[in-house]
Amino acid sequence: MREAFHDQLESVFSDLADICASVEVAVTKATAALLTPDAAIAEQVISADAAIDGARERVEENALALLSLQAPVATDLRVVVAALRMVSDLERMGDLSVHVAKIARLRTPNSAVPEPARPTISRMAEVAEDMVHRAGEIIRSRDVDAAGLLRADDDEMDKLRRSSFTELLSKDWDHGVEAAVDIALLGRYYERIADHAVSVANRVVFVVTGETPAS
Amino acid sequence: MREAFHDQLESVFSDLADICASVEVAVTKATAALLTPDAAIAEQVISADAAIDGARERVEENALALLSLQAPVATDLRVVVAALRMVSDLERMGDLSVHVAKIARLRTPNSAVPEPARPTISRMAEVAEDMVHRAGEIIRSRDVDAAGLLRADDDEMDKLRRSSFTELLSKDWDHGVEAAVDIALLGRYYERIADHAVSVANRVVFVVTGETPAS
Question: What number is the ipTM of this complex?
């Protein structure tokens, strides 16, 4: 019984890592759509999201089957519930990539990100992509130390968000209200992607150690 | 066994309704902090959020105890999992109220919402508050029809969000970039509060009917 439980749980975690890989593609492509800019790539992100939603449903079904057939208690129960939460985080990260892609699509053939805002937004996108990539590795490796490093990266994201606000509220900003609003929302979306990546990593720490790290 | 299960489940749903009532207070006060403006009310919202987080943890513990002790299967299992998701939605609605309160606090003694933006933002806040109130009633009543009406209200929220963008991107907007960015983010926060209220109502429909409504 316990062996069957652990095999099925491994399969759920393997599916979670696969979804995280799809989310990483979504974040990377959404950023390419934004900075190139490229409406066709934006469309790819938007239409690919249904596959992430479908994968989420399958993981949920498998996790529910596990709860139903194996009736785990104590730590095992909490691990399955953690998996259910991780798949919610991952689906949300996919949705946020779609929001980025939709802003990109709305402004083509122009880029939503004017020149002076590019370094900070590019760096936010890079940090978000890297955090999603590493969240995927952490799901596979269960590496608790790597999860700690991911939380440190989230501090960089917070600093970048503040820099971005400083830029668009400075007297030198001459790209108008529309670009400023786009950038404020883009910053919010990348920040939320990073938050969810940290949340995924924290749930892995919980799965391994039984303790949720202080955020 | 089944009777004990249903008594404990009722207690979880009663706690969910109580948390929803706290979230309603948070949304109402955050809006008052924003529109009055009033930094002290903003502080109340920010400091009260810890109680919502604590209540969330207790509901999660109770739901996990229910899974562990009663090992529900089939529909009963899905109902408990729905409760776990509802409490995540409610906690997130509390966090979003804190985001509104923090923008209010940042701009006092001024209001973050200049005169021409007040009607739309006030109406968004009103719709969000009403949706949270009715989500709480739906948790208590399990009224599937009321949940359908809540989804219709979400369409009004989407329209208001578009109106708000039109206002701040119009040639007549003369309140600068900072106010526009605040309003774009406030609109996003109220929209997300409404989304989560619909999500809570949809989960109640699932609990009653076994079917998740199409969104």
Answer: 0.94
